[in-house]
Design a protein that fits this description.
The complex is a heterodimer. By secondary structure, chain A is of the alpha+beta class. Chain A contains eight helices and 14 strands. Chain B has two domains: 2-127 and 255-301, D-Maltodextrin-Binding Protein, domain 2 (3-Layer(aba) Sandwich), CATH 3.40.190.10; 129-253 and 315-330, Periplasmic binding protein-like II (D-Maltodextrin-Binding Protein, domain 2, 3-Layer(aba) Sandwich), CATH 3.40.190.10. The chains are: A alpha+beta, B alpha/beta.
Chain lengths: 455, 332
């Protein structure tokens, strides 16, 4: 059955992959946003200092005796000291003519505004940030535009950025690992009701077709509802078919008994050998049919009772003793000795009718397969446990079929000529299952079959 | 005729190059394959021990040592940076500007305290005070001034005695003198008062500490302001005629710095020499007469900081203003 289902992917894996991929994408986006933001803040910091330096130089500009003097304070450049000793360049222009500082630095074009402009330029083989601004000086006769630009390299800034990037990357990786664990946990939690349902379906006995009533997440509700409907239908059709079989068996049994009594009576009357042989075969066939019918009835009864066990305390010693007494006449006919060894007194909690039926089937089987003058040993309570061992001296179970014998209508290869329906061991197995017990079939070393029942 | 012109030209260039240097010395033991050219403002006698201990262990290296003033050193190097491997100067501001302008090579493998280096390119190797040096005879039976104020008071009390007998750097010619003066002016107004008093008494102006100390020993002058303490100490060991005062109001400490030229063709050797120099100067050493002070910061001692602000007074406009004011004070 399971071989035919095609497995494509796993819900949990799919969910995890989705979550982790999402986290990775989020992480990467976050990394770039934080880095960009940090870069902007760091750049703003540098710009602020450059602007402060710039305005301190501009403020120092005066017209003195018709010439421009810019006696800027020591602090103007001192404030540009960084941990990585960034290089500093500046230029002072008067009406566009360089009067001090470095050549080729760009100057602000906003003549009528003292607002600083910032730009990043290539200067002296390195990248520098330039702040520039203008100021108009009004003298007695003249009007002079002073343009100051101040530039600083970005060594310290890039180091800060690298540190931030490294930390953000580290933080992001940690976050990612955490998310991986979280998503594993989340998917496991999400998927667990499904797993629980699956395992409770698996754990159910073959006859257990009750609907599932435990709480399930809303997403699983349709699935469980359909499952319950399916089980309900299955249960119904199973019951119908079993009812049908039981009914059929019941209907067949009575006419069979009638036919058998007529056949017996006829056997008394005919004397011709071939007729008597034919009648005997007939009687045997009728026996077989009626036995099958009664076992079918038994089986139906057991299936029915398995669902609602009527448990009581059963003394196995008494039960087995009574069964042996019942079987004594048949055993005597075949000169078989029934030996009952009671090691201890065993009491179990179970359905009396079912247990009796199961043990009867086992003893019946033993009697059927035992040779004349054989012995059947029934041991109760060995190893101080509640187990019953029934052993005969017959041909034993065919070893290659040991695990199939308990299936319905399966009979051993060596059952030719022996009356049987193939339901005996099935009944035993069903009873044992209903009581959570075990049935172990094996062959004895010195020959003979051995069945061990334990509850 | 042509030969004559060539000869004239040769003589001319020879004279020209000779005139560039205050001193010029080649350290060689004749087995060398490489030449290290050092451009320096430090007198040969102070640097000799360091060079000699270097070539003792590096027999394949010849060292050419050129000495000139701090200001001209800056000009010479800027004109032809490829001619020199190592640049040594006491003018911290000029050196820092050279590095800022991209003339120096980064030497990443050197470990050096962060306060004593800039951009891993400029390395300080001495701490030297600017001192007031006095001729002892001139202050016999008088209290020795310990601060600039004391000195002003002393000069004012004996104007005729000190007339034309005071010396200081000509800040227009000496880079180190300019550095000392600007740092003094930055720290205290006392500097300007002192300059005015000195100017009133007819101060002699010098290019170098050595000349100033010479005149001080001979008695030509009796007070010298902002002399290199290390040079004075060395001279004091020879003749006990001078008194060295490190002003108690605010001391000015300068650091001599070295850097490797960005266009050096001898990077390996230059780095090796730099390492040798720093090792030599950061360890306590035996007492020599002519030894550079080590780079050891005494508790509470402060030096001029290696920072971009050193370029402030190198600004053309600032320099013009400063020199103008200085001239007004000292050349009256």
């Amino acid at each position: 059955m399971t071989d035919k289902i095609q497995v494509s992917g796993s819900l949990q894996n799919r969910l995890m992959v989705t979550l982790i991929t999402g986290a990775a994408i989020l992480g990467i986006i976050l990394f770039f946003i934080v880095r960009g933001y940090a870069a902007q803040i760091a750049q703003n910091g540098q710009d602020d200092i450059l602007e402060a330096s710039l305005s301190s130089i501009l403020d120092a500009a005066v017209i003195h005796d018709g010439t421009v003097e810019v006696d800027f304070p020591y602090a103007s450049l001192s404030m540009l000291d960084t941990k990585l000793d960034d290089r500093v360049f500046y230029s002072i222009h008067s009406d566009g003519i360089l009067i001090s500082g470095y050549e080729d630095l760009p100057i602000s074009s906003k003549i009528n505004s003292e607002i600083s402009t910032f730009r990043t330029i290539k200067y002296k083989n390195t990248t520098a940030r330039v702040a520039s601004a203008n100021r108009i000086l009004i003298g007695e006769k003249e009007r002079i535009i002073i343009s100051v630009s101040i530039a600083q390299t970005q060594d310290a800034l890039s180091r800060t950025l690298n540190t931030i990037s490294k930390n953000v990357a580290l933080f992001g990786s940690g976050f990612f690992i955490l998310v991986t664990f979280l998503s594993y946990w989340a998917t496991a939690t999400t998927i667990s009701p499904l797993m629980r349902l699956a395992s409770s379906v698996t754990k159910r006995g073959p006859q257990d077709l009750r609907p599932f009533e435990k709480e399930v997440p809303s997403e699983m509700f349709p699935l469980v509802t359909s499952l319950n409907k399916l089980m309900n239908r299955l249960d119904l059709s199973l019951k119908q078919s079993e009812d049908f079989i039981a009914e059929a068996a019941h209907r067949v049994r009575t006419p069979l008994a009638t036919v058998r009594s007529y056949a017996d009576a006829t056997l008394q009357r005919v004397s011709k050998k071939e007729n008597r042989d034919a009648l005997r075969s007939m009687v045997r066939a009728i026996d077989e049919a009626s036995r099958a019918a009664s076992q079918l009835l038994d089986h139906a009864m057991i299936t029915f009772r398995s669902d609602k066990l009527q448990k009581e305390l059963i003394n196995l010693n008494t039960l087995v003793q009574n069964l042996i007494i019942n079987f004594e006449p048949i055993a005597n006919m075949k000169d078989i000795e029934l030996k009952f060894i009671q090691i201890s007194s065993v009491e179990i909690n179970g359905d009396f009718v079912l247990i009796q039926n199961a043990i009867r089937n086992l003893i019946d089987n033993a009697l059927k397969y035992s040779p004349h003058d054989g012995m059947i040993t029934i041991t109760l309570g060995a190893n101080s446990g509640s187990c019953l061992e029934i052993q005969d001296q017959g041909p034993g179970f065919p070893p290659e079929e040991l695990d199939k014998l308990t299936l319905r209508f399966t009979r051993g290869k060596n059952s030719n000529g022996i009356v049987g329906s193939g339901l005996g061991l099935t009944i035993v197995q069903d009873v044992v299952n209903a009581h959570n017990g075990k049935l172990k079939l094996s062959n004895h070393e010195i020959g003979g079959a051995c069945a061990i029942l334990s509850f | 005729m042509r030969n004559f012109i060539v000869l004239i030209l040769m003589l001319f260039t020879k004279a020209l190059t000779a005139a560039e240097w205050e001193d010029e010395k080649v350290f060689s033991i004749g087995t060398e394959t490489k030449t290290l050219r050092i451009l320096s403002s430090t007198d040969t006698i102070f640097f000799e021990p360091i060079i000699e201990s270097f070539i003792k262990n590096n027999k394949d290296i010849k060292i050419e040592y050129f000495v000139t003033g701090t200001a001209s050193l800056d000009k010479i190097f800027r004109k032809s940076p490829e001619k020199y491997d190592l640049i040594i100067s006491s003018a911290m501001d000029l050196q820092l500007k050279l590095v800022n302008d991209g003339f120096a090579k980064k030497i990443n493998q050197l470990t050096h305290p962060s306060w004593a280096k800039w951009r891993q390119s400029l390395f300080a190797f001495t701490i030297e005070p600017a001192a007031i040096v006095l001729n002892k005879k001139a202050f016999e039976n008088r209290e020795i001034p310990t601060t600039r104020q004391d000195l002003i008071k002393e000069l004012r009390s004996r104007p005729t005695f000190f007339k034309d007998r005071i010396g200081t750097y000509d800040v227009r010619k000496s880079g180190l003198g300019y550095l000392f003066a600007t740092q003094d002016a930055r720290t205290s107004e006392t500097f300007w008062r002192l300059m005015e008093v000195m100017g009133g008494l007819g101060t002699k102006l010098y290019c170098c500490s050595g000349d100033m100390i010479d005149d001080l020993v001979s008695g030509k002058i009796v007070v010298a302001y902002n002399v290199l303490g290390s040079y004075a100490e060395a001279r004091k060991k020879q003749s006990n005629e001078i008194e060295i005062i490190l002003p108690a109001d605010f001391p000015t400490n300068m650091m001599r710095t070295a850097m490797v030229s960005n266009s050096t063709t001898n990077l390996k050797v230059s780095e090796k020499f730099m390492q040798h120099l720093l090792n030599n100067q950061t360890s306590q050493k035996t007492d020599q007469t002519h030894a550079l002070p080590p780079l050891i910061l005494k508790p509470g001692q402060q030096t001029i900081i290696l920072e971009p602000a050193l370029m402030t007074y190198l600004d053309k406009l600032k320099r013009q203003t400063f020199i103008k004011e200085w001239e007004r004070a000292i050349i009256q």
